[in-house]
Amino acid sequence: MAILSGNVIGNMKGKLGNLSARTVEGRTIMAARPSSFNASQDPASLEVRAKFAVTANFSKNVLSLSALSAIWNKVKSSGISAFNAIFKANFAFSAIDKPTEHNVLTPEGFPLQIEVSAVDADKITATLPILNAATIIGADEVNLSVNALVCYTDPVNPTDDPFKIIALSKEVENYNFAQTYNAQLDYNVTQVALAAKYQHNILYLCVASKSADGKVVQNSGTFTKIN
Q1: Which residues pair with 123 in a beta bridge?
Q2: Which domains can be identified in the chain, with CATH numbers?
Q3: What's the pTM?
Q4: Which residues neighbour 14 within 8 Å (Cβ) at sequence distance 6 or greater?
Q5: Three-class HEC string of the chain
């Protein structure tokens, strides 16, 4: 493996001959690719690869939400990507065919106790509790980011993928942390059509406070609900 710093050809990613390249924190890391590889077909190896694929899918969707990406980039160890940090935190919780209610959107955070929530055909709704009762809110925390994944399972048509994930977020300016809030995150047309193909779902939801300039200050843990 080689690490290139001050790279005059810019950051690289992908394959180059028998080398592979990836960029982590602005550094290009190059490694030799094996000349051949025969994947083991024993049950234990197949299970690991299945969980790997599920966790990678879940991690990609977490990373697609900008507030969650910022949270993981703040807490990740030096030298690894935010994706790898999310993956590492979630791999043990994934099943071989879908994420479970134990998967997480955030590494740690203040408790988020939601009494009323629903996943409808075209939207998510949730009544957020009084947040300054769950954590100390500083003067710089003025906005709120609401983030959610919905993992759809049990397809109506057995030939469809065993699960699909919808990622949603909503930014609320001048948020009142001393009151409850009825959050609603609407689906687009494509997401409505996808949701109709599945019989059950798992809702994952978290919130993050933000400063006036859009920086995440603190975040909640993950609320989950099986529907």
Answers
A1: 186
A2: 2-32 (no CATH), 43-226 (2.60.40.10)
A3: 0.82
A4: 20, 21
A5: CEEECCCCCCCCCEEECCEEEEEECCEEEEEECCCCCCCCCCHHHHHHHHHHHHHHHHHHHHHCCHHHHHHHHHHCCCCCCHHHHHHHHHHHHCCCCCCCCCCCCCCCCECCCCCCEEECCCEEEEEECCHHHCCCCCCCCCEEEEEEEEEEEEECCCCCCCEEEEEEEEEECCCCCCCCEEEEEECCHHHHHHHCCEEEEEEEEEEEEECCCCCEEEEECCEEEEC
The region that residue 28 occupies, defined by phi over 0 for left and psi between -120 and 50 for alpha, beta otherwise, is: beta
Backbone angles phi, psi at 35, to 5 degrees: -70, -30
- The answer to whether residues 163 and 227 touch, using CB atoms and an 8 Å cutoff, is no
How far apart are alpha carbons 62 and 219 in whole angstroms? Answer: 14
Per the document, the length of the chain is: 227
pLDDT recorded at residue 170: 97
pLDDT in tens, 30-47: 565 565 556 666 666 778
Average pLDDT over residues 130-137: 96
CA distance linking residue 57 with residue 79, whole number of Å:
22
Average pLDDT over every residue of 191-206: 98
Judged against a pLDDT cut of 60, whether residue 100 lies above it is answered with yes
Q: Tell me, what's the pLDDT at 194?
A: 97
Please give the Cα distance from 159 to 67 (Å, whole number): 34
- Answer positive or negative: Cα dihedral of 79, 83, 84, 86: positive
